[in-house]
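Lab notebook, bench 4. The sequencing result for the construct came back, and we need a structural model before the next group meeting so we can plan mutations. Quick request posted to the team channel:

Model the 3D structure of this chain.
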Amino acid sequence: MAAGQRRLDIEDVGDVTVARFVDKKILDENNIQIIGNQLYGLIEQDGRKKIVLDFSNVEYLSSAALGKLITLNNKAKSAKGKLRLCGIRPDIYEVFAITKLNTVFDIKPDRDQALSGF
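Done. Here's the predicted structure in token form:
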């Protein structure tokens, strides 16, 4: 994978994989595709079961990106894995709340809380 295409910082904390978004705005269809593929790969190729998505960098998220998150959540569930989200800004969280996605995802305020008791 080309370094210029890196859209996620991946870090292992014990048996949990933390994926932090590099981009502040996740809007571009092409980038969303790359992000989706990188995230799906964590489950499908790497067999990771515990994933925390860290949104602390993210200022804007398109609805297409939300679609990828829903797919990722489904993939994690069918692989008997777990997905947690953290560091979501209030204005982005509002979108999760309006679309009722806050009931679909396990959302924690920050990374430490997302990692604890996983």
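The chain has one domain: 3-115.
Will bring this to the meeting.
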